[in-house]
Design brief:
This protein has about 120 residues and is α+β, with helices and mostly antiparallel strands. The chain has one domain (about 5-95). About 20% of the residues lie in helices and about 50% in strands. It contains 2 helices and 3 strands; from the N terminus they run βαββα. It has helices spanning about 20-40, 115-120, and strands spanning about 5-20, 40-65, 70-90. Strands 1-3-2 form a 3-stranded antiparallel β-sheet. The chain is elongated. The protein starts with a strand and ends with a helix.
Length: about 120
């Protein structure tokens, strides 16, 4: 048998949001697989991030108050956009040829003596 998996490098741009820096980066990294699976007709075996380059890092904050005066607190959200170089080990499904076998339906009703039963022969 031949080896069908191949490794290729690809740059993926992902973004994520969260209340902390860790949550924002985790949200961005979790969308890498979704983006790679949607791009091609291949079965992905392994995704290895090799290089991470931040494109946009934003920290936004605002102060919220309860009933306009009470319980002031500052809310912060972090948003990141990253260019991630990944090594993708995958199997190209278009390059494979499948053997085509026709089998009878499992729902088919097997009546071998139907002709004889209809004629009244036993």
């Amino acid at each position: 048998m031949t080896v069908v998996n191949e490794t290729k490098r690809q740059v993926v741009t992902v973004s994520g949001k969260g209340e902390t820096k860790q949550q924002a980066f985790a949200a961005a990294f979790s969308s890498i697989q979704k983006q790679l699976v949607g791009n091609g007709d291949e079965a992905i075996l392994r995704i290895i991030p090799e290089k991470v380059e931040p494109l946009k890092l934003v920290k936004s904050s605002y102060t919220e108050k309860f009933l306009f005066f009470f319980f002031k607190r500052t809310r912060t959200t972090h948003a990141v956009t990253l260019a991630v170089t990944v090594a993708v080990s995958a199997i190209d499904l278009d390059a494979l040829t499948f053997e085509d076998i026709t089998t009878p339906s499992p729902d088919a009703l097997s009546l071998p003596n139907l002709k004889n039963m209809l004629k009244g022969v036993k």
